[in-house]
Give the backbone structure.
Amino acid sequence: MAIECKTALELLLAAEPTELAGQGDSELAAHIRECKRCGAVAARLLAGQGELAGALGELGPRTDVEEALSVARARRRRIGWQRRGWRVAAPLAAAAAVAALFLARLPDGRMPGEMVLLPAPRIEPAVEAPLAQNVMVFETRDRSAKVIWFY
Amino acid sequence: MSEPTRIDEGISALVRGAQAGDEAAFERLVRRYYEQIHRWALARTGDRDDADDVTQEVLVRLHRHLASFDGRSAFSTWLYQVTRSAAADLFRKRARRERLTLKLVREARPETHDPRQEESATDERRASDLVRAFLEELSDRQREVFDLVDLQGFGPVEVSGMLGMEPVTVRSHLFRARKTIRRRILESCPELVEGYGD
């Protein structure tokens, strides 16, 4: 035996499954074939991995494939409907928003965006403009105050 | 189980049919890969409930995205990527796995104290301990690699393609996972390693 059992044990922990089965030309495979004790360890490791694979296999899907397919079909239909729905709903929503914009009236009865024509300031006849000048009188919020502009 | 790089004719025909809208071909394809998808999802998520959810999501995505499969990689490689992506989305939706994997183990292997089934119970406990080690002690990557290579028989090179990982990295994860699992296996039979010395 080219390697000792202690070394073999370390190698067994990372060895390929084929080596654990004693197959191949590696020193470890040869050792496993010749050493009963290490052969038993290798066999236990292989069996343990088999048990693990079996236990995981038992944790398979709890939903039957037919049922899963039927659920998937239903979800696909729902997703498709939602997408088609959005394709129709998005332009409709945009059109509705534009229509609402045109149909809506501001509190003062104007359309949104409509220009406001403010009344022109009236000339106060009581104020006489100096020669070669014009005059404008502006009302203020304070009824007792007026702004007189000569220009 | 290792699939050649070119998809085999049977799968290829099913994929082409499903891509062309043949619902029967799609269903056959799903039946063929259903349990495999679930197993990948279980190894990826470490939780049976999550694996069920991911598997269901993969079926929907498979139908929606099958047209994008161009046959340059093995179908199983592509499908594995779809499964990983669905699992990643699930994790994004949930900040953290909510259900303990321990629950899964208990559910899968209920303990029994019937003395007439003592030997069987010992085997079950041992398997249960291994499942727990697999789910809780291995990192996500180690679990994926170990399951794909050692338990499901995919080749390391193929797995490196499936996981988008360098082959040397795959081997590194594989060795670490093997050591963890195999130490657990030997812990359950201390008589086997007696006399080896430290």
